Write the structure tokens for this entry.
Amino acid sequence: MENKVITIPKPNDYHIHLRDNELLGFTVPVCCKNYRKATVMPNLEKPVDNMSDLIEYRNRILNNVPLGMNFEPLMTLYITKNLTINTLIDAKNSGLVVGCKLYPANATTNSSYGISDINQINDILKTMEDLGLILLIHGEQLNDENDEYGEIDIIDREKEFIINTMPKLITKYPNLKIVLEHISSEFAVKYIENSSDNIAATITPHHLYYTINDIFTKTGKYLNCCPVIKGRNDRKALIRIATSGFPRVFIGTDSAPHTIQQKQENNNAGIFNTPESLLIYLEIFDKYDSIDNGNFEKFISTNGAKFYGLPINDEKLSFIKTNYQSPNQYNYNNFIIPSMLGDNTISWNYNNNNNNNNNNNNNNNE
Ligand code: DOR
Ligand code: ZN
């Protein structure tokens, strides 16, 4: 029997960390091979919270797009206390910015400039609602001020954010378009299923592929991320909604490179998955019989475009059911970045007929 082949409209990644400067020489080409557009996160060391920094960052990204490839970065602004209403208006008028990212202060990598109380940004949120800019949320609450022990357990942070902050947002800004990014729990899945049409969620490959048990294995030493990978019932719920054809969940890889050194020294939160991201989603959707019914294509290529108001891409990507052995790590200049899969083999690969397959000369096996 011939190996199964699937061809889909080239997707967009609705959540990626491309980082900056030298590393863009690695992250941008890999992203372009897999994605036509990508929602670029603004959590650089100096947060992207004004239009001149945003335009310069966008240019640095575009300078790294390989010749002959079409790629559009969908830029986002970081909601810091310095973000202004005028910046939002300029952002909307520029046509370059899809939305703004809300990081609760200190919730994750480079989030110290985030917001600890959404009441501090009422004018920003109202303007975003009026302009139709999307609010992209890192939905984790760190502290409970009514509890003497304060810090909320890492596995409960998403749930607490949804319980304590989402109702306030929805009541005050009923028309604000919101994406709860990288949902990771059964609680979040149920919340999205019961929410209104202006609320959507992204789901990462790592939250669909791993559970908390994997964190304690050899590969797991590099799997720290925010929100943390949770239990089997959480994973099951994520797989259920992703593979169901539900229209308001879609791809967002949260691919976030950190070097092995950063991981070993500080256990930095973030998983780099861009090279294998689509293969991993395929692996999951195939296992749950959700390719032939069209649900893979919905989750990967169409749901996000509809929510963002973007056209479906004309270019195509093609995959074949044959083994793919992931490298343990990616080497680029002096950067050594652990892969998401480590030693794991998966059963989907890029089809050689792709004009732009994923072979990358810089990818070295350990
Ligand atoms: O795991 C994560 N890494 N989660 C985030 O929200 C940020 C990201 C990063 O920038 O490394
Ligand atoms: Zn992220």
The longest strand covers residues 72-78. The pocket of zinc ion (ligand 2) is lined by residues 15, 17, 41, 254, 256 (CB under 6 Å).
